[in-house]
Write a structure and sequence with these properties.
The complex is a heterodimer of chains A (406) and B (138). With 406 residues, chain A is α/β, with parallel strands linked by helices. Chain A is built from 14 helices and 17 strands. In chain A, strand 5, helix 5 and strand 6 form a beta-alpha-beta unit. Chain B contains six helices and three strands. The chains are: A alpha/beta (406), B alpha+beta (138).
């Protein structure tokens, strides 16, 4: 049984929520772009630079030892958070984008040959499109696109029909950043298993909201960003099955990723370090663990229950506004709502809401193919997080109505 | 030049009354947008467009002995309001006056956020379009 959340108390952990924007209380509904940070994350970063700043895995002095230990603690916490088999499968990156680029560069080099096929979907973020286009061009691979229906859901028949004996890799978003759709990735992964296809899941939007269990999912790769889950910017995670990570060539060369260097021959370090060339973002990785602790302390079940209530409440209110059209109507979704309003451009709407202290996102949300699919240039997007309240949603809906009726 | 600065000072005075209230300023801008002499549909072509990430602006001109006259449009009301301010400032000016001018009203009325970056369709890219028109007629 989940216990009811004390949202007022939880909100107090986020100093930024006290900020005034244009003389109004900040109402932050741009959570799909980045989430705000609880005080324990901010304090951890502050503490790191004041007390333990040092380079990791190299020095033998005390500070280096402490920093290394704290850094590796985050790896363990991430491993448990996504239920990876072991810590060596957790690679720290700069974010989801870097994770995808790493895989798109290293996996095909080892395993794919000319005319092999990669499948992505119509609802991908640009960061899960462009890296594949680049590698397909370079290695003469074929990129295939699986369709979505009018509701913004994946069409599984379209997906199955694309698979041939040349299909070797699938890269798919777990939850769409512009439509909020939760994809049936378990089914897709199982189809991939049956056809001997490797699969990467882009979990940037899923990681703060729903439970992730990579062993149960049986995906080959899973990537996420710390800043979308109450953690610092500039940190991401790339999970990969150890067998694949061991076989794949490194992404970048440099310090840390080597065992031995001579001008004749260099031997690479073991995973995860093979993929972590150079000094990583130590302070932010260390602070990231506090973001996961924050999520764990509330509990994913509590988060899901509360956010489901917020989502249903918002959806009903939005559906009752005349002239508002939701883009994407998936049955299985989270609280990310893209919409257009008759006679009001999203640019005007974004600024007028900002004048009332409400932060939403406007534009194409780095998913231009989705906008083309729905024959629009962009949308207004409001996206929810754990610290949002019913009062904030009411204020947003009331403000929206005032703007529309003007 | 003198004329351009006088109009900018007028605009600064008008916005002063709004006391830097962002919402009132936006509403006033949207009202001003209605004053833009509308560009004919047939002139909404590639060479008259100022493309931005979120909004589109069209601008064209006529030039005679009394200086420039402009017509334009935008798909967003706030951007159209910003366009109307620039049209008001640059109308009836000679190419040289436009080239030599300096827009100081933006900072004075706290509209720095509208200056824009390469991605956004800000005042800077609109100002550039007016100056390109001026330069091509010098």
């Amino acid at each position: 049984m989940s216990k009811p959340l004390n949202i007022d108390k939880l909100r107090k952990e986020f100093p930024i929520l006290k900020t005034k924007i244009n003389n109004n209380n900040l109402v932050y509904f741009d959570n799909a772009a980045t989430t705000q940070k609880p005080i324990k994350v901010i304090n951890a970063l502050d503490y790191y630079y004041k007390n333990i700043n040092s380079n990791i895995h190299r020095g033998l002095h005390s500070l280096a030892e402490i920093a290394t230990k704290e850094f590796e603690k985050t790896r363990l916490i991430v491993k448990n958070f996504i239920n990876a088999k072991n810590e060596e499968e957790i690679i720290f990156t700069r974010g989801t984008t870097e994770g995808i680029n790493l895989i798109a560069n290293c996996y095909p080099k080892k395993y794919l040959k000319e005319n092999d096929e990669i499948i992505i979907s119509e609802m991908e973020h640009h960061s899960n499109i462009v890296p594949w286009q680049m590698i397909c061009k370079e290695k003469k691979l074929k990129l295939k696109i699986t369709k979505i229906n009018k509701k913004g859901e994946l069409d599984l028949n379209s997906f199955k029909s694309l698979i041939t004996d040349k299909t070797k890799f699938v890269s798919l978003v777990h939850i769409s950043n512009s439509l909020g759709t939760i994809n049936p990735i378990k089914k897709i992964i199982s189809i991939c298993r049956d056809n001997d296809i490797k699969i990467l899941i882009d979990g940037a939007q899923a990681s703060p909201h729903i439970n992730i269990n990579v062993q149960e999912l049986d995906c080959d790769f899973y990537v996420l960003s710390a800043h979308k889950m109450y953690g610092p910017t500039g940190v991401g995670v790339m999970y990969g099955k150890s067998k694949l990570l061991n076989e794949m060539p490194p992404y970048m060369g440099g310090g840390e990723m080597i065992k031995n260097v001579t001008f004749n021959k260099t031997t690479y370090n073991d995973i995860p370090y093979k993929f972590e060339a150079g000094t990583p973002n130590i302070g932010d990785v260390i602070a990231f663990k506090e973001a996961i602790n924050f999520i764990n302390e509330i509990g994913k079940e509590n988060i899901q229950n509360y956010e489901k209530d917020l989502k249903n409440y918002t959806l009903e209110k939005l559906q009752n506004i005349d002239g508002l059209k939701l883009v994407g109507d998936a049955k299985n979704r989270i609280g990310i709502f893209s919409f257009t309003i008759e006679h009001t451009h999203y640019y005007d709407l974004g600024l007028l809401l900002d004048a009332k202290g409400i932060a939403i996102r406007t534009g194409h949300h780095c998913t231009q193919p989705i906008m083309d699919k729905f024959n629009i240039e962009g949308t207004a997007r409001m996206s929810l997080a754990i610290y949002n309240s019913i009062e904030e949603i009411d204020y947003f809906i009331e403000s929206l109505k005032k703007i529309i009726n003007k | 030049m003198e004329k351009i600065n006088t109009i900018q000072k007028e605009i600064i005075e008008e916005f002063k009354i709004l006391d830097q209230d962002f919402e009132m300023s936006l509403n006033y801008l949207m009202e001003l947008g209605d004053r833009v002499p509308l560009i004919k549909e047939k002139y909404k072509v590639e060479e008259n467009i100022i493309k931005g990430c979120q909004s589109k602006v069209w601008l064209t001109y006529k030039l005679n002995n009394n200086g420039f006259t402009f017509s334009g449009d935008s798909n967003t009301e706030i951007t159209k309001g910003l366009l109307s301010l620039l049209i008001r400032i640059y109308s009836n000016c000679s190419p040289k006056e436009i080239i030599d001018s300096n827009l100081f009203f933006i900072k004075e009325i706290g509209f720095n956020r509208f200056i824009g970056t390469q991605r956004s369709n800000g005042l800077k890219s609109m100002e550039n379009k007016f100056k390109i028109f001026a330069l091509s007629n010098i």
